[in-house]
């Protein structure tokens, strides 16, 4: 039997955002133990795709080994990267 979720509100919000049960429970329990702001500040330094230039998005697509990105506009690149 798994441990109960310690922050039900956060767990439900994470599930609604499409996170797995395991990931949502892990984040919610860490937030309950350490405080939400502490857990949130631990995240990576990734930029939002919307804040990147088309050239940076194309570089990211290349890093990921995607094909067919060279003629895409910014919105199409963002969709392609998110769907990968």
Automatic annotation (TrEMBL):
Pfam families for the chain: DUF7218, Rho_N
Region Disordered: start-end pairs: 15-49
SUPFAM superfamilies: Rho N-terminal domain-like (SSF68912)
One Gene Ontology term from the biological process aspect of the record: DNA-templated transcription termination
InterPro entries registered for this protein in UniProt: DUF7218, Rho-like_N, Rho_N_sf
Biased composition (Basic and acidic residues): 15-25
Domain (Rho termination factor-like N-terminal): residue spans on this chain: 49-79
Descriptive protein name: Rho termination factor
């Amino acid at each position: 039997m798994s441990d109960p979720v310690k922050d039900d509100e956060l767990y439900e919000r994470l599930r609604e955002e499409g996170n797995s049960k395991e990931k949502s429970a892990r984040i919610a329990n860490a937030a309950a133990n350490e405080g939400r702001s502490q857990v949130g500040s631990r995240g990576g330094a990734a930029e939002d795709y919307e804040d990147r230039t088309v050239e940076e998005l194309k570089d990211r697509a290349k890093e990921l080994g995607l094909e067919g990105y060279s003629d895409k506009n910014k919105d199409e690149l963002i969709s392609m990267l998110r769907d990968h």
